[in-house]
Amino acid sequence: MDNKAKKKTAPIIITIAVVIFSLAYVCFFVLLAVTAPETLIVAAIAIVVYLGVCIGVIAALRERIKEINGGEEDEALKY
């Protein structure tokens, strides 16, 4: 495994974990909205928030992979 592949492993694993947990919450709130219709507004807001988290984390992963492929592996060390 080359150095770039090693640096991609952690962000991919973390992204997968966050997306799985967020989708589990989405499933929970969908189930909640189906079984208890009075919670529909709260469930809808939570679903939108967790789907937004998934999209944000995936976008951050794409940017991180672009940085690694572009040779900016340690970009955070500049700050």
Can you give keywords for this protein?
79 residues, mainly alpha, elongated
Helix and strand topology:
Layout: H1 3-35, H2 40-69
Proportion of strand residues = under 5%
Give the SSE string.
HH
Number of domains: 1
The shape, in one word, is elongated
- Structure summary, number of beta strands: 0
Helix content: over 70%
Mean pLDDT: 89
- Separation, N- and C-terminal Cα atoms: 28 Å
Secondary structural class? mainly alpha
Radius of gyration: 17 Å
Query: Uncertain regions: pLDDT < 50 for 5+ in a row?
Result: none
Q: Compute the number of helices.
A: 2
In this structure, how is the largest beta sheet organized?
A: none
Description of the molecule:
The chain has one domain. The chain has about 80 residues and is an all-alpha fold. Helices cover about 80% and strands about 0% of the residues. It is built from 2 helices and no strands. It starts with a helix and ends in a 10-residue tail after the last helix.
